[in-house]
Fold this sequence. Notes:
With 547 residues, the protein is an all-alpha fold. It folds into two domains: 19-238, MFS general substrate transporter like domains (Growth Hormone, Chain: A); 252-483, MFS general substrate transporter like domains (Growth Hormone, Chain: A, Up-down Bundle). It is 67% helix and 0% strand. It contains 19 helices and no strands. Helix 12 packs antiparallel against helix 19 (518-543). The longest helix has 36 residues, at 315-350.
Amino acid sequence: xxxxxxxxxxxxxxxxxxxxxxxxxxxxxxxxxxxxxxxxxxxxxxxxxxxxxxxxxxxxxxxxxxxxxxxxxxxxxxxxxxxxxxxxxxxxxxxxxxxxxxxxxxxxxxxxxxxxxxxxxxxxxxxxxxxxxxxxxxxxxxxxxxxxxxxxxxxxxxxxxxxxxxxxxxxxxxxxxxxxxxxxxxxxxxxxxxxxxxxxxxxxxxxxxxxxxxxxxxxxxxxxxxxxxxxxxxxxxxxxxxxxxxxxxxxxxxxxxxxxxxxxxxxxxxxxxxxxxxxxxxxxxxxxxxxxxxxxxxxxxxxxxxxxxxxxxxxxxxxxxxxxxxxxxxxxxxxxxxxxxxxxxxxxxxxxxxxxxxxxxxxxxxxxxxxxxxxxxxxxxxxxxxxxxxxxxxxxxxxxxxxxxxxxxxxxxxxxxxxxxxxxxxxxxxxxxxxxxxxxxxxxxxxxxxxxxxxxxxxxxxxxxxxxxxxxxxxxxxxxxxxxxxxxxxxxxxxxxxxxxxxxxxxxxxxxxxxxxxxxxxxxxxxxxxxxxxxxxxxxxxxxxxx
Length: 547
């Protein structure tokens, strides 16, 4: 297919002209990340779906109906543990699809990849809706789990390389803005889904099917707007008045050369950063997964002013402390999102290596402090420690694209970031397995519930020590790993990169001549800002239960 036939999706047709405002690119990235971030909030559907047939009470499957039989059964309701496999698929497919198609993204550009992500994510939700209607769980697995998971991976990495090229002066901040959106997606999507299910539910329908249709359409439209908002800078473009600083002090680690994605599996620094992310995320996911039960089991009745341990509470009191714990979980989501922007922005000043060192050293101290604050019954210290830990968990995700750009160059940073996301898939298994296994093991030994997390915290401190050592070992690359000028030119040609002169049309005009309108800029930020503010407002309503 020729470039002309590819039209508005072709990479060479989205090169920004003179007068383009680079601040139009972050809201385009946020439009996509706020949608796919709903992957974090999909659990809002599990309880209603577990009663999709029975409505009031689940119609339980017989002992002969195993996992595979549940994929096709139409006579009994799905178990929540079965539905949870879709959540696992999301993050496995995110890592694998980002790794497989990251190099292709660099060559075809972010717009085409963003459009495909929109089709996969929105379309996957529509297939899932059909699966709910027909009560066929395999359709939900195929729709949201597999097809949606591919859209998740493509959407996640689509803006990274572009933003870093538009903001060479603020790499961390730029990546942090987009990846903040991924953390905030569930903050908008979860309450929206809950409101829609409440609206659509009837005495004979839990309302999930209609909710998935509405959200699938909304997400598709929003993501398409984001994809069509992407522009890439001309080759050699740099911000007006900005000149790269000489390699010294905190940017001695920043290279001006570029590594080909095909070489990264063999580079020690890649595996060191892979371990840095794996250890940080494993520890963070471990805390996210158990934050709510940990708060309830450690502080028990004291959360509602009752002098009883968790095991001594009645049903009404357990319900009351569950509400407090929901507020705590909402508070953590705010720190997770805020940390993505805060730490990534700070890393532009401190340097990426020092920022990760803070994650590991400060994080280690905080994890180590949790058993002590729990034993002392000090809720303020406990909650403060967990909130800061969650901010650094989010910060690690947001800072790593800039870390990769510093070490490996910007030419193929999106593809390299895709490869690195296999660390996320690994951490998603490692963290919860260690935490859940240790909790069950401690309970099996007869240790009181309020003390079962102590050993786990010390294990997570060990994770952070390993991460710190790996981070300290990261050094600038040996020049042998970088592309030669000839190899770089070949790659740029394959990536359809063109200098300004080649963008002049036959009539003498530039491909994108019109300067950016301030009104368009305002509308673009309002389109992502208003839903984000609404999500924060709804989250703060839940946080209020904690206080």
